[in-house]
Amino acid sequence: MLLFSLEAERYDGSLIKISCRNSDMPGWKWVQELITGHPLRILENYRITVDNFMRLCDVLVGNNYVLQNPHKHVLIEEALGMTLVMLSHSMRTRVVGERFQHSMETIHRNVTEVLLGLCTLDGTHIPATMVPGFLALFKGGRNVRVGQGRGRSQVPKELFNTRHSQLRNIIERFFSVLKQRFAYLRGSVPYSYMQMQINFVITCCALHNFLRENQPLDDHFMMYEQERMQFEGECGGPPYPQIQPLTSPQEIEEWKGMREEMANQMHAASRRRK
């Protein structure tokens, strides 16, 4: 009688060790196959071209963002591959471990190192902080679509609302590209530690900026570049989110004053350019 388990096979009373990670296609070999194979394969799996993948490896190692040594079992190409396939396809650690033929501990350790390295891609770690309030539109102020209203000067409140809508549209398009490229951001991040969740988001933003600079003709960018900009005041979009609502009367008045000052500065700068 044969009894099977994840770690051993028992036959005729004796215990025979069976390796769990015994695939003929280990992770390092799969990464090399993607690098040397058809260029679409690495794009589909990692969302990056071969040249930019190797460039990113050089940046991470050359700036000591991810330390390497001769005795390290997992090299930067494989570690970066783990991270990119996890982010691009929302793979969980156990699935990545099966794909790369490593233990969950090895996957977690190497992905964490790459995440921290990518968070400092520009040399400065981005602090994640909550703003105390939200600058809303002026009530009763119009939003003017770009190209409209020529020949007349917008008052400060109209100009502020127009710039506010333009900025919000750009931010929404940025997050649309981010979620389209990195499926990991489309649902809840499966890590209970808040810092790990923050690192995942910052990493996706750092990769977005790197690809924006080095891979500008990427399909994900081109898809949203061709969209026409629409403003919420005209197309009936969802209401603005309530972010950390202010409760103190003094704080509310301070933020209203700051908004008035910004609107007046925008208006003055606009008049000087004419």
Automatic annotation (TrEMBL):
InterPro entries: DUF8040, HARBI1-like, HARBI1_dom. One of its GO terms (molecular function) is nuclease activity. Residues 23-119 form the DUF8040 domain. One of its GO terms (cellular component) is nucleus. Residues 151-209 form the DDE Tnp4 domain. Keywords: Hydrolase, Metal-binding, Nuclease, Nucleus. The keyword Nucleus applies. Its cofactor is a divalent metal cation. It is found in: Nucleus. Transmembrane segments: none annotated. Belongs to the HARBI1 family. This is Uncharacterized protein. It comes from Coffea canephora.
